[in-house]
Amino acid sequence: MEQEQAPWQLTSDERKALYKSVAQSLDAANDEGTFKVLHAYLRQFESDKQFSSVEQDARRCVILAIKSPCVINFEELLELKAIKALESVSRLVNLLETSRRVQVFEYVH
């Protein structure tokens, strides 16, 4: 999706709105691509200082990552500022951290 929208020369706010709209549509259809688009949407906020506007989206992204058999690397998700902002208000990030540790343990053993 990132490559497709590049020639459109969208503003930052337009790009965020596009990603959010597509993510919501995919999520409503229980599409497996929801996580990727929602993750791309949250990456749009890396330069922002206020994450309260995307807290629900960040929570949903964590849930989708945990549920998806296709997501095997949580590191990239844990590095997002919007996800880091959840650490103080949600136990979901702790669950994600635990899942990551289990994956590492299973890989080593």
Write up this protein:
With about 110 residues, this protein is mainly α. The protein has one domain. The chain has helices spanning about 1-5, 10-30, 35-45, 55-65, 75-80, 80-85, 90-109. Helix 3 runs antiparallel to helix 4 (about 55-65). It is globular, with a radius of gyration of 14 Å. It starts with a helix and ends with a helix. The model has no long low-confidence stretch (mean pLDDT about 80).
Structural class label: mainly alpha
Q: Given the C-alpha coordinates, what overall shape results?
A: globular
Into which percentage range does the β-strand content fall? under 5%
Major sheet details = none
Element-level helix/strand string: HHHHHHH
Distance N terminus to C terminus?
Answer: 37 Å
Say how many strands there are. Answer: 0
pLDDT < 50 stretches: none
Number of helical stretches of at least 4 residues: 7
Mean pLDDT: 81
Helix content: 55-70%
How many structural domains can be distinguished in the coordinates? 1
